């Protein structure tokens, strides 16, 4: 690229113009397309292509001022050109210029021929052109869904990754440093069909089966088979997709080449697979039966062609495999008449089995051996019959070393056995091959002997302790009681057991059963009976029958000869009673005291646990003394001494005219509603904090005589005063009349039945306080009668006798 500065003169003004730029856009064999930047003021552009190092003439092209891209044609292929651009005004003056060098592409090659030998490629042969450094093969499917360009260096070259039996349009382009030429004239070509994919197998030792999927567009298939190491080829044409080659050699490898033909008669790909036939059956030549620690059979056979491995099978399912011509099978079965055969195998499969050969094994030992003891001391060894046996030898050995031998053709053997011993028994069967290699040993242990000195004793109310001496053959002892559904209470090796958590008042039949692990337990031992302690009685009710006597009612869950003791324990004393019935009476219990009452049962077996205790609270104590004093005519004050255990009191005064009651926490009570001149009965109820009560009776109380009513004071003509009243209640009381004046005091006694009393006045005109009160039988007057106040004027005074208001 050249940078040019152009100087233009317009009316004496100089201006600098921007350089124009030039670049080659595309190159072909005979043309170049260039692109440039526009120049201000340019009305046209001229492009000159001058061959470099060539006598050929330059080529020109001119474009308008609005054009920025143009092509120069009629160039020579594979030639270096100097490309010059000139920007000109209307007067064809050059305003700016630029130039560059570029080489034209080589000449267009021509395709000579095309052909397809493989289903995924087409080979193109073309005429190479001078100056080309490489070529591009272009392949395009006629459907337009495939397009590829392959860079190659020479002819012929191949386009790959194509589809079988597909039409393609092919062209070739030459390439150098300047670019690529135009594509050659296109040519059509079609790929061949693909080869069938054979799946081969050898069903027998003389055949090979070839199977394949149909090949699309194939009308014929060709298969060629050749034996390994041979030059003889067998060719087969078929339209099927399955072929069987027979009459082949066993254990021999064959290679099969497969090809397909299309409708145009073109042969497609070829693929070769190799397959070996199965080996022939080997011949067994010898079988040897061996004994010892690892008894078995050794099998020998003749090798066959093509066999990689041999397997010998017995009819019992045992086998051995090897690449040699012999193998050894351990005998897992005894007492059998079996046979053996051999197969050969290779990659194709397994041959047919050989002819079987028979063999016989030694006898088996009896699997099931047992000992029966129909009666104590008389035992029989028994077993199941074993096939292929002529006679049996039985060995019996006791654990103290004593041995016994029995030879028989039967399946039983009798021997004498004792309790507490273990016997080891084994049976060996014999036949012509000899004895069995082993014999199962069966242990038989006779039942342990029963202990004879079992001692049962009661160690607590519900626990029995059992002790005994050890016996022979017993490994552990089970202690049960029939009354507990024969639950095993002890399962121990020690000769002692404690049966706990038993039911009270129950006779238990205790059995000690000796046991051994092998033989089991001796269930013939006699039981021992012992009773547990009585059951604890339950207190049902406690009732007070007297001041210090209580009857206790309880349950009697034990045998009739059981006695019951009831004990009441208090803070200061203790009481008890005993009975065989369901109740007994506690006496001399203190009032106001809390007792804990328990019941215990006693029998010949022992004493029970105390039953659940119940609390007995005796009634509170009555006060020793009660005093009733009258406060007013209708009110009394009752006091009493404290009662032990009492928290509150209810005091009642009762008469035919009514009653009065008060409930208090104190030891005194003020009571109203008292009727004068009445005899009252005095009752007191002491109540404890828990609600227990005691009824207390005391000497009666008589209320005071009633105060008279209607008291009036009259003056008489003889200077005397008369006090008049109305008696209330009984008329059998005397009354005392008292007058208190400022000048004098007077007293008068009125006999029973009188309702007035006269008093000789000494001084007139005085004010008197008059009190009329009944006198009791004890001579004491009632002190709470109300006073009356009167003014008494002298005779002749204008003031009459008046009554002052009563003052309290």
Automatic annotation (TrEMBL):
Organism: Oryzias sinensis
Keyword annotations: Signal
InterPro entries named among the record's database cross-references: FN3_dom (IPR003961), FN3_sf (IPR036116), Ig-like_fold (IPR013783), Interferon/interleukin_rcp_dom (IPR015373)
Signal keyword on record: yes
Signal recorded as keyword: yes
Signal peptide residue numbers: 1-16
Residue ranges of every copy of the Fibronectin type-III domain listed in the record: 16-107, 108-194, 533-621
PANTHER family: FIBRONECTIN TYPE III DOMAIN-CONTAINING PROTEIN 7 (PTHR47135)
Name the UniProt record assigns to this protein: Fibronectin type III domain containing 7a
Positions of transmembrane segments: none
